[in-house]
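for the writeup, i need someone to sanity check this before i put it in the appendix. the sequnce is what the collaborator sent (i think, or maybe the updated version? ugh). structure was predicted straight from it, no edits. if anything looks off just tell me and ill rerun, i have time this weekend
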Amino acid sequence: MKILSGKTAVVTGGSRGIGRGISLRLAAMGAVVYVNYVSRPEAALETQKLIEDAGGMARIVGFDIADAGQVEAAFKQIIAEAGSIDILVNNAGITRDGLIARMKESDWDAVLATNLKGAFLCAKAVSKTMMKKRWGRIVNITSVVGFSGNAGQVNYAAAKAGLVGLAKSMAREYASRNITVNCVAPGYIRTEMTETLAGDVQERLKSEIPLGSLGEVEDIAGAVAYLVSEDGRYMTGQVLHVNGGMYM
C-alpha cells in the first residue's frame, strides 16, 4: 500500500520546476494531487499526464494564489470534489529582481502578495478541513536567500524569510490538532530557469556550493515527502535546508 493512499494534496505552482517534482513524488506515494497553475495550463496538463502515465492520480486547478476570492473558490471546489485536503505545499512564487534603490513599489508588492500572502491565504483556506479531520501537513517552500540574503532580491528574500515566521506561528496554532507545518529551503536547483543561465554563470554558482553542483528537483521533493509522511510526524515548526552546504 502506498503511504499516502487516500490523501489529497494541493501543490501551488505545481506545474513546473520544483513544483512539478513535488507533485510527481506525492502522486507516486499514492496521493491525489491537485496541481495549481496560474498562467500556463499546458505545463499543468503536461504534469498531469506525467503523473497519470506513471500510474498516479492528478487534477489541475488554475487560480491566482494572491487573489483571496480565487483561493477561496478553488479550495471550496477541491474540498467538494475530494472531501478534504490533507496536504498543502506552498510552492508558488515569482521574482521581480532589482536593487532596492531602484525597485518599484509595485515590484515589492507583487512578490510579497504571491510569495507570502498567497501562502497565508492557502493555509487559511485548508485550516478548517484539516482541523475537522485532526490531521494535516503544510510545507512552505522558502529559499536559501531567505536566510543568507541576496543583493538585488530584497523583495524575494523578505517574502521567503516571512514564510518561516508564518510556518512557526502556524505550527504552534495547529499542533493540538495533529497538523504539522514546516519549511523546505532550497539552494540553487537545476530547473528550466537555471538551465538558461550562461555557462560561466552556472560555474560561478557551483563555486559557491561546497558540494560543487546544483541540486535536483528530486532533492527538494524528497524533503517534502519526508515531512508529509509518518516519518516526519514529530517535526513541526522546522526548516530543512537542502542547499549542498551553501548555507550552514
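The longest helix spans residues 105-133. The mean pLDDT is 96.
thx in advance!!
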